[in-house]
Amino acid sequence: MVVARLQKNNAVISDHVIQADTFGKRLKGLIGYKQLPPNHSILIKPCKSIHTFFMRFPIDVLFLSDQNDVIAMYKALQPYRITATVRKACAVLETNAGVIITHQISLRDQLRFEI
After folding, report:
1. Per-residue pLDDT tens for 15-43?
2. DSSP-assigned letters across all residues of 35-95
3. What's the domain range around 86?
4. Which residues contact 108 (CB under 8 A, 6 or more apart)?
5. How many structural domains is the chain composed of?
6. What is the pTM assigned to this prediction?
């Protein structure tokens, strides 16, 4: 199981990170989920933009650099939306809406992924 932590305070922001690292997994993402279980997220890699077409719930979105620094984010992105392309992004972490506010995540915060 992969866990996502904030480097600045060691807080667990997701204790169940689903890895979408193949074309098929990246294409599907969270489509088909009725909801994202609490403390779950999906790490899409590589990724520079996302859409929420065919999704049923809002999500918080963290765009990550190659060093897992937060370089862009969207709070409570609603279904049927498209994000801007983040050229320097290497990955995206999609989490439950409210995670950014709950954990006070800011630009330049760094995430750490642990097995």
Report:
1. 999 999 888 888 777 777 788 899 999 99
2. SPPTTEEEEESS-S--B-TT--S-EEEEEE-TT-BEEEEEEEEPSS-BPPP-TT--EEEEE
3. 3-114
4. 69, 70, 71
5. 1
6. 0.93
